[in-house]
Amino acid sequence: MSGQQANLTWKDGGVPVSERFDDPYFSLQNGLAETRHVFLDGNGLPDRFCQGFHIAELGFGTGLNMLATWALWEQSGQTGVLHFTSFEAFPMAKPDMAQALEAFPELAPRSERFLAVWQGGVCDLGTLRLEVIEGDARLTLPAWAGQADAWFLDGFSPAKNPELWENQLMASVAQHTAQGGTAATYTAAGFVRRGLEAAGFTVERTPGYGRKRHMTRAVLP
Ligand SMILES: C[S@@+](CC[C@H](N)C(=O)[O-])C[C@H]1O[C@@H](n2cnc3c(N)ncnc32)[C@H](O)[C@@H]1O
């Protein structure tokens, strides 16, 4: 356990910005659209959804990615349980999460259901089983017994949060990816792509969201 909470300032239309990393939690333009483009489309979702599907994420933050994924899971007709595991070193206080998620009225019914039961750790949301593993992912991921079908690599920008993108961690991501599994991230930073390649992924640079020209998609052959 890191035991350290996120310290925030608020920008523009209610976007939380980490004081520790001096970086926003989601796109200043449209966080939900970016989540859909980068992490959902980027991992071939919803087409790849199937019973027992497991998503893992580096950086739980506000829970936005989880909520958007849960919505897509149900909208795509899945009725079973989606597994979603996220690694987070500096958990956000619940009132801060609630404030951040207010920017996405479309997700409000799910945000409310989530926040009503969220106490950290494991959370049963009916069609989604969430586990947030607290602590530095460089220590907690190697110790994880799970395997993910899709990864959301969502640290702060590689320049400001390099520890969440380092080669050894990318190797650990690969070790915890099912065969044929995928990873996606909003960044196309060269060292991140090289780290994923060195870990065994086949890496592709594809059009990014908004002002970002490129993003990265990776498949474990
Ligand atoms: C861009 S934010 C994630 C946004 C989030 N996915 C969402 O839907 O709101 C990056 C997250 O990575 C977390 N983080 C930074 N360094 C970390 C580390 N070494 N281990 C685990 N989490 C870390 C931060 O605390 C922050 O919550």
Which tags fit this structure?
three-stranded antiparallel β-sheet; Rossmann fold; alpha/beta; binds S-adenosylmethionine; globular; 7 helices
Tell me, rounded to a whole number, the average pLDDT.
Answer: 96
Please, what is the CATH homologous superfamily? Answer: Vaccinia Virus protein VP39
Strand-residue fraction?
A: 25-35%
Strand order of the largest sheet: 6-7-5-4-8-9-11-10
Main beta-sheet strand count, sense and barrel state: 8 strands, mixed
- Helicity, as a percent range: 25-40%
The first-level CATH class name: Alpha Beta
Shape call: globular
> In total, how many domains does the architecture comprise?
1
Tell how many strands the DSSP assignment holds.
Answer: 11
How would you explain this protein's 3D organization?
The strands form two sheets. The chain has an eight-stranded mixed sheet, with helices on both faces. It has 221 residues and is an alpha/beta fold. A hairpin with a 6-residue loop joins strand 10 and strand 11 (214-219). It has helices at residues 31-40, 64-75, 94-101, 108-117, 137-140, 167-175, 190-198, and strands spanning 8-11, 15-18, 23-24, 54-58, 82-88, 122-124, 128-134, 148-153, 177-185, 202-207, 214-219. The protein is globular and about 40 Å long. The chain contains seven helices and eleven strands. S-adenosylmethionine (SAM) binds next to helix 2, strand 5 and helix 5. The site of S-adenosylmethionine has 24 residues, from helix 2, strand 5 and helix 5.
